[in-house]
Amino acid sequence: MEDTIKKIKKTDEIADYLIIGNSAAGLSAVSAIRTIDKTGSILVLTNEQYKNYSKPLITYLLAGKIGLDNIYFKDDKFYEENNILLKSEINVKKINFKDKMVISDKGISFKYNKLLLANGGSPIIPKIRIVEADDFIENFKNKNINIKVKEEIITQEMLDSTNYKNISGIFTFTCLQDALQIQKYIIENKIKEAVILGGGLIGLKSAEALLEIGIKVNIIELSDRLLSATFDKYASSIIENEMKNNQSNIYTNNTINKILVKNNKLVGIELKNKEKINTKLLIIAVGVVPDLRILKESEMENEQIKYGRGIFTDEYMQTNIKDVYAAGDVVESFDFITGNKANIAIWPLAVRQGEIAGINMAGGNKIYSGGYFMNSIEILDIPSISIGLTNPADNNDGSIEIIKDFKPERKFYKKIVILEGKIIGLILVGNIDRAGIYGGLIKNEIDVKSMFQA
Ligand SMILES: Cc1cc2nc3c(=O)[nH]c(=O)nc-3n(C[C@H](O)[C@H](O)[C@H](O)COP(=O)(O)OP(=O)(O)OC[C@H]3O[C@@H](n4cnc5c(N)ncnc54)[C@H](O)[C@@H]3O)c2cc1C
């Protein structure tokens, strides 16, 4: 049946399936489409230059544990066997939903019958004042008012999502290019110490890598503890103590007030509490948001896709516009545990949503029943995992039962959150051997009352 396969060869042909994003959600959709439609043409667009890669592995790449050869999760054969036309380094700017056309920033247009938005998230860049270091240092030495005024005039520039790239030494950590650029910069500048803004998952993933290659880290975190979205104070304290014992500094309840540069090179930062840290490497890791730039750009001339924090879809992963689907980090979907809509940006959910979208795009019928947050991280040889609702709001009517086992001397912590006999949240630190079993209990909503009775 080889001759009946429609392979899109030229970009002015109409693709039966056009997918924006060549990662977890996009490629999972491709595989799912091919389980139903063996012949329809598939065009995948990505603004990256790499054939594909596993994002969670960029930590291990930066840590030197794996090389580029090990980071790809689909080989060239995947594209050949599935008859996919992959167009790299195409940055989609907007979509004309009426004419079913995707338009790149260079004005190239691509037509489609069915479209999947699987374009993931983008890093948040907080507005921080950029200060020329000379003025800053002078200000330190001379506390007179004139210098302060001078500094205010000179330092009107604020960091934003584009200008940080012009300052040598400031990076985000959300894609392969980030990891490769940081790696190169560390070698070229013989970096021994770094500042990480943000003590959440991405901040700690970058800390994990830097510590592995012997770089001292200073983590600046706005809340009162590391990993505050998923850990409680007990879990955080184990990680924090271990990091402090390994020459790392953690500045909680703090943030960066000023970025100090000289000749467009980072030389240090000043914290909210006025403390100054000399550093040539700053990783900004304050969060990732669904990347809605394409939609916002398309709004002027189009029917509008509905979104909140992320794109809204129905249980078939279809948006409010016919033939337009969305999956992965760009969507806001059903949180199985809280019952609310949420943007749960994790790899397995991107794969599952991509699969559901692909099946339905190809005429199948499959429903997404929701997912929940789950992530693991290993810092200084302490493994940890958090699943679901780990910090329920203060116990209301007593319906939530929490079981804790905290043994800081053994760097061990276990917290199980139970609602109506079912586990809805879990934190394991130090020993995650039973994470799979607990995960199964959560997923299958097993009644665990009898297991935890005294
Ligand atoms: C450092 C790090 C560590 C992580 N660790 C884990 C982990 O341990 N476990 C876990 O479950 N999850 C982890 N994640 C999250 C996980 O990587 C994501 O949930 C997953 O990659 C989402 O897949 P996706 O396909 O939705 O989007 P993405 O993987 O973000 O892919 C989106 C693709 O779309 C492309 N794109 C975006 N905009 C455009 C455009 N305008 N035009 C063309 N192409 C575009 C992008 O370049 C990219 O190729 C981690 C993420 C990071 C950053």
CATH topology of the largest domain: FAD/NAD(P)-binding domain
Largest sheet: 7 strands, mixed
Question: Mind telling me the CATH superfamily name of the largest domain?
Answer: FAD/NAD(P)-binding domain
The CATH class of the largest domain is Alpha Beta
Strand content: 25-35%
Helix content: 10-25%
Radius of gyration equals: 24 Å
Bound molecules: flavin-adenine dinucleotide
| Count of alpha/pi helices | 11
- CATH architecture classification of the largest domain: 3-Layer(bba) Sandwich
Strands, total number: 26
Alpha-beta classification: alpha/beta
Number of structurally distinct domains? 3
* Low confidence ranges: 141-153
Overall, the morphology is globular
Distance between the termini: 64 Å
Secondary structure layout:
Elements: E1 14-20, H1 24-36, E2 42-45, H2 58-62, H3 76-81, E3 84-87, E4 92-96, E5 101-104, E6 109-117, E7 121-123, E8 129-132, H4 133-141, H5 145-154, E9 170-172, H6 176-188, E10 193-197, H7 201-212, E11 216-220, H8 233-245, E12 249-251, E13 256-262, E14 265-271, E15 276-278, E16 282-284, E17 288-290, H9 293-298, E18 311-312, E19 324-326, E20 331-334, E21 341-342, H10 347-361, E22 374-379, E23 382-388, E24 400-407, E25 412-419, E26 422-429, H11 435-443
Parallel strand pairs: 1-2, 1-6, 2-3, 6-19, 8-13, 9-16, 10-11, 10-16, 11-12, 18-20
Antiparallel strand pairs: 4-5, 5-6, 7-17, 13-14, 14-15, 20-21, 22-23, 23-26, 24-25, 25-26
Flavin-adenine dinucleotide (FAD) is lined by residues 20-26, 45-48, 55-56, 58-59, 90-92, 118-121, 173-174, 202, 205, 291, 294, 328-329, 345-348, 350, 375.
